[in-house]
């Protein structure tokens, strides 16, 4: 009996293109000006410091921006990059320059599942702030009241079994009562090894299917 759903974002609730063609370029375009203007804010400074620690060398602000641009190009799921991207996107959403993309079935089924009493959670490499922003600024309104919690890379990587063990411990349910939704087979494999139920979203005809997991073309095909 499934009592909670943990959902990925990119490729699951929202399009990969929105993340890669809109969000990442927006963060890249505003990165240097953001760092120059905001580097003294403690929450920014701590992330810039973490970039230098990860590189194992001292960095000027311009060096840090170079590293972060490289990490964006490599699609690195590094916590300092994700935290800084979230802060930059916050400015974009506040200015009305960004709208969070969700597939049309996403709000519909999130509302149904919530009304059925299922607990809804997000697990994404994007920071918790970035997760709340994308769901808080959709064409279907603010979806954040539907969620009971958010998890990001601070709980661990999405391909690591331990991350899912920590998530179910935080949710407070047996792993078998939690369903994880993602488009990425390696994430689903890790979740299953931790005991969670899984379903792979195959929204794109070219998506690589992992047949060991149940699959769904959209949320209407997800069996809970
Ligand atoms: C919160 S929207 C931005 C998502 C993001 O930054 C990312 O790297 C995609 O990660 P996901 O785990 O959702 O595939
Ligand atoms: Mg994904």
From TrEMBL:
Family recorded in the similarity comment: Belongs to the HAD-like hydrolase superfamily. MasA/MtnC family.
UniProt keyword Hydrolase, yes or no: yes
InterPro entries per record: Enolase-ppase_E1, HAD-like_sf, HAD-SF_hydro_IA, HAD_sf
GO biological process assignments: L-methionine salvage from methylthioadenosine
Catalysis performed (reactions): 5-methylsulfanyl-2,3-dioxopentyl phosphate + H2O = 1,2-dihydroxy-5-(methylsulfanyl)pent-1-en-3-one + phosphate
Involved pathway(s): Amino-acid biosynthesis; L-methionine biosynthesis via salvage pathway; L-methionine from S-methyl-5-thio-alpha-D-ribose 1-phosphate: step 3/6; Amino-acid biosynthesis; L-methionine biosynthesis via salvage pathway; L-methionine from S-methyl-5-thio-alpha-D-ribose 1-phosphate: step 4/6
Oligomer and partners: Monomer.
HAMAP family per record: Salvage_MtnC
Originating organism: Stagnimonas aquatica
Cofactor dependence: Mg(2+)
Gene3D superfamilies for the chain: 1.10.720.60, HAD superfamily/HAD-like
Protein name stated in the entry: Enolase-phosphatase E1
Domain of life from the UniProt record: Bacteria
Keyword terms of this UniProt record: Amino-acid biosynthesis, Hydrolase, Magnesium, Metal-binding, Methionine biosynthesis
Enzyme type, top EC level: hydrolase
GO molecular function, one term: magnesium ion binding
Its EC number(s): 3.1.3.77
SUPFAM superfamilies: HAD-like
Keyword Hydrolase recorded: yes
Cofactor remark from the record: Binds 1 Mg(2+) ion per subunit.
Free-text function comment from the UniProt entry: Bifunctional enzyme that catalyzes the enolization of 2,3-diketo-5-methylthiopentyl-1-phosphate (DK-MTP-1-P) into the intermediate 2-hydroxy-3-keto-5-methylthiopentenyl-1-phosphate (HK-MTPenyl-1-P), which is then dephosphorylated to form the acireductone 1,2-dihydroxy-3-keto-5-methylthiopentene (DHK-MTPene).
């Amino acid at each position: 009996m499934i009592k909670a759903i943990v959902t990925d974002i990119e490729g699951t609730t929202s399009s990969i293109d929105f993340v890669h063609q809109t969000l990442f370029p927006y963060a890249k375009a505003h990165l240097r000006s953001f760092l120059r203007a905001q580097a003294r804010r403690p929450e920014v400074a701590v992330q810039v410091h973490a970039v230098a620690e990860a590189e194992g060398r001292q960095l000027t602000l311009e060096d840090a921006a170079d590293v972060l641009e490289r990490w964006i190009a490599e699609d690195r799921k590094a916590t300092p990059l994700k935290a800084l991207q979230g802060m930059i996107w916050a400015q974009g959403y506040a200015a009305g320059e960004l709208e969070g993309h969700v597939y049309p079935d996403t709000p519909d089924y999130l509302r149904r599942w919530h009304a059925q009493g299922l607990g809804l959670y997000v697990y994404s490499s994007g920071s918790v702030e970035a997760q709340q922003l994308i769901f808080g600024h959709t064409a279907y309104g603010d979806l954040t009241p539907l969620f009971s919690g958010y998890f990001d890379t601070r709980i661990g990587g999405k391909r690591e079994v331990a991350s899912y063990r920590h998530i179910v411990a935080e949710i407070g349910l047996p792993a078998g009562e939690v369903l994880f939704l993602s488009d990425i087979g390696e994430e689903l494999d890790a979740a299953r090894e931790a005991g969670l139920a899984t379903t792979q979203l195959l929204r794109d005809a070219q998506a690589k299917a992992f047949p060991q997991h149940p699959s769904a073309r959209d949320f209407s095909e997800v069996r809970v």
